[in-house]
Amino acid sequence: MPERSMSHPERAPAPRNASIPAKATAPTRPPFLEFVALIALLIGMTAFSIDNLLPAFGAIREDFALANANDVQVMVYAYLLGIGSAQFLYGPISDVVGRRPILFAGLAIYAVGTLIALFTRDFNVLIAARVIQGVGAASGRVLAIAIVRDRFEGREMARIMSLAMMVFLTVPILAPALGSLILAFGSWHLIFIAMLTLAVALLVWFGLRMPETLHPEYRIPFSFRAIGKAVVLTLTTRRAAGYAVAIGLMMGSLMAYVGSASQVFQTDVYKLGNLFPVAFAAVAGIMAVASFTNAALVRRIGMRRLSHGGICGFITVGALMVAASLAYGGKPPLILFCGLVGAGQFLFALTVPNFNSMAMEPLGAVAGTASSFIGGFTTLMASVLGYFVGRAFDGTVLPLSLGYMVLGAIALVFVLWAEKGRLFGHNQ
C-alpha cells in the first residue's frame, strides 16, 4: 500500500486540537507494510524473549540444580512482572518527551538485563535479570500501541493492530524451533545472545526509519497532576476499565499456557522431547491465522460482534477442555488436546486485539498514558493469574483447562459490565 494511504484524510485520526490539521502529524515514512512490520517486531520482542527460551527450561533447571520443576516457570513470570511494572512509566513520559527517546532508553535497559543473564551463575540473579529485561521490553509494548494510536483510530486502528498481531504471532511459531536449533550448537546462553541481537537490530531499524509520531502540540508538560488526571480518566471510562480487566483475565490464561507448555508437551504429560517446538508452533500458527481473519473481517463485522462471539466461544472451548481432562484422567489424547487448545487460541486472537482497541478508542487524548496504564495493569494481572494457574500444574492438563474456562467466564462478566449488559451491539 502506498504511503499516501497512511495520511489520507479519511483514514487519519481526528486531530485532538481543531486548529491543527490531521496531516500535520503524519510522518512521511516508513511505508505502510514496513510500518506494520516494525510495530509487530516491537511488540514481538516480548514474545521472542519468552518463547525461544522455552526449549531451554530443562537445561537451565539442570544447570542451576533446581529441585522443583515448576521453579523454572518463574523466568516467565519475572519477565512479565518487569514488563507490567515498567509500562506505567513509559506512556506518561513519552507523552512529555516523545516516543523515540523513550524507546531507545527501553531497548538499552533490555540489553543490560540480557548481558547480566549471559554471565550470571546464580539463579536468583538470572531471575533479577529477567525482570530487568522485562522493564526494557515494556517500552516496545507500550510505545508500539501509542504510535499506532498517534496515526490511526477506530476500525483502522483495529486493522493495523490485527496485521501487526499476525506478524507478531509468527514469533511463537518460529521462536521455540529457533531456541532448539541454538541449543544444538551450544548452551542456553546463546539464546540470550540472540535476544541481544534482536534488540540491537530494532534499535538501528527504528532509529533510521521511524520519525517521531507525537506532534509537538500534543505533548503535555510533566506533572503528577496531569498523569493523575489521565489515569483517572482511564479508570472512570466504563468501556476502557471493563475491557482492560477482561484483557488481563484472558491474558492470564495465555500466560498460564506459555508457562506450563514445556512441562505439558516436552517433559511431563506428552513427553514430546525435541518435538515440543512442533506442537507449540502448531498452536501459535492457529493464532496467526485468527489474527489474519480478524484483520480481514473487523471492518465488515465490527469489533463488538467479533470479540463478543470470540469470548463466548473461548469459554465453551474451556469447558470442553475440562470435560476432556476429566474423561481421560487429566491426559487427553495429544491430537484432541492440541485441537482444543488451538481452538481456544484462535478465539483468543479474535477477542483480545479488539478488546484492546475498544479500551483505547475513547482515550485518544491521553493515548500514551492510557496505553501505559492499561498495558501495565493487564500484564501484571496476567502474570499473577498465570503464575497461580501454572504453579498448580500437577502432571495433568486439568489445572490449565480450568484456568481457561474460569478466567474466560469472569472476563465475560466484565465485558457485560462494560457494555451495560448488552453483547453483539452495533458495529464500530
UniProtKB/TrEMBL annotation:
Biased composition (Basic and acidic residues): 1-13
Signal peptide: none
Cellular compartments annotated: Cell inner membrane; Cell membrane
Cell membrane as UniProt keyword: yes
Xref: Pfam families: MFS_1
Classification via NCBIfam families: efflux_Bcr_CflA
Family, similarity comment: Belongs to the major facilitator superfamily. Bcr/CmlA family.
The name this protein goes by in its record: Bcr/CflA family efflux transporter
